[in-house]
Design a protein that fits this description.
The protein is of the alpha/beta class. The chain contains 7 helices and 10 strands. The strands form 2 sheets. Strands 4, 5, 6, 7, 8, 9 and 10 form a 7-stranded parallel beta sheet that branches. Strands 1-2-3 form a 3-stranded antiparallel beta sheet, with no helix packed on it. A hairpin with a 4-residue loop joins β1 and β2. α2 crosses α3. The two termini are 28 Å apart.
Length: 224
């Protein structure tokens, strides 16, 4: 248990000895624990966390400006995303600066947002927010499973249609920046096997598109 969590339980919630609480290791296991007189916790039992989706959703999110990236991470973690890979695309307003420390600072902040959102939504796992990378590196990092591209030029194939028959255990979903993916980027993703899908008849903001896509996938996989 982190010092921050311990402080919150003991000094903010003011738990008393004998109080029981469910703790999580952030890796999918819950622990029923009881506060002892010496402020330590005694583990009473363990059990698998039942709040985690069966389908692993990896969100490839183009870097967004301002606090929009923070919002996407927070809400998608609450909804059940497995991991998020921030990507610098051709039209990303937010850029990865030359210094490694810049990416490291972003990643640290993003991971703290993920941890907070996971705790708030009673997740059994803290999704990993990977360091931001450029587009080519992100394409090469794709995991196995079904890869979907939210693409404004696709008019007919919906997420529902793409996931109708036996949804896979791992789904990669790509969401572009404010200006969308460039033609070269879209071609590269399609060439790598991505399936273009529409998120609906309306054009969504980039941050809204990410949240909508993850919510739809969770719902369509009957894991809501």
């Amino acid at each position: 248990m982190s010092d921050e969590t311990s402080y919150h339980l003991l000094h903010v919630l003011r738990m008393k000895p004998g109080t029981q609480v469910v703790l999580s290791d952030g890796l999918g296991t819950d622990y029923l624990a009881e506060l002892c007189a010496n402020t330590a916790f005694a583990i009473k039992s363990t059990s698998p966390c039942l709040t985690e989706p069966v389908t692993h959703i990896t969100l490839y999110q183009a870097l967004l400006k301002g606090d929009k990236m923070d919002l996407v991470i927070q809400k998608c973690v609450e909804l059940g995303v497995f991991e998020i890979r921030p990507v610098q695309t051709e039209r990303s307003v937010s850029r990865i600066k030359g210094k490694d420390s810049d990416a490291a600072k972003k990643t640290t902040r993003y991971q703290k947002i993920s941890e907070s959102a996971a705790g708030q939504s009673n997740r059994g796992r803290i999704p990993v927010i990977h360091p931001p990378v450029n587009f080519d590196a992100a394409v090469k990092s794709q995991m196995s499973g079904l890869t979907l591209l939210a693409y404004e030029r696709e008019q007919s194939l919906t997420l529902k249609s793409a996931l109708t028959d036996n949804p896979p255990s791992h789904i990669n979903i790509w969401i572009g920046p404010e200006g969308g993916f460039s033609d070269d980027e879209a071609s590269a993703l399609l060439g790598a096997g991505a399936i273009p899908v529409t998120l609906g008849r309306r054009i969504l903001r980039a941050e809204t598109a990410a949240i909508s896509a993850v919510a739809q996938i969770i719902c369509l996989c009957e894991e809501a």
